[in-house]
Design a protein that fits this description.
Helices cover 36% and strands 28% of the residues. The protein has 210 residues and is of the alpha/beta class. The chain has one domain: Vaccinia Virus protein VP39 (Rossmann fold). The protein has a seven-stranded mixed beta sheet, sandwiched between helices. A hairpin with a 4-residue loop joins strand 6 and strand 7. Helix 4 crosses helix 5. The longest helix is centred in the first third of the chain and has 12 residues. It is globular, with a radius of gyration of 15 Å.
Amino acid sequence: MAEIDTGSSSFLRRSYELTGPRDAAKLYDEWAATYDSDIVETMGYVGPAVVATRLAELVPAGATVLDAGCGTGLVGAELTRRGDYVIDGVDMSPAMLDKARDTGAYRRLDVADLTARLAVDDDTYDAVTCVGTLTEGHVGPEALAELVRVTVPGGLVIATILDPIWEPKGYHAAVDALAAAGKAELREAEQRPYRVQQDVGCRLVVIAAC
């Protein structure tokens, strides 16, 4: 596992040691009740706000957005503060989806495994967000192709990828492979804050579907 500060959170430490989708669903079902206070208030988790701000700068209001790995709905809530978007969410954890439903930000919410093909047609969404999911022990770089698949040509995938794993774990290489295949174009991969109270940063990755 890459050296990533998890502070004193046993949930966060366990999240970087997941062994597959079932393990992920079990952990996040357990964590759902305290997730927002643990990660936002205690750890200074700003990833959702960073992505929502950039999406609002690049994607006009009224666009359809898939929030992939939506968790408790932090991204959806941030997006609704910035514009009138039509947002769908998917996540492995039913308990997290229940929390997301309480935000009122989503048109629909479904259980889905981001390590497999999504039950979504090609070219469905104007934009896709993926925050906190393309990370150690969660969803690997192969999922980027699936996120691009469900995005309309010219639409954007906007994601966070922890800085320590962007290169070593093959995420950058996966984006380059999509570009070489004519399926996507890397627009941005800027370093941004992620969990500010632990000084953990991420790459804010913006990929245009082709």
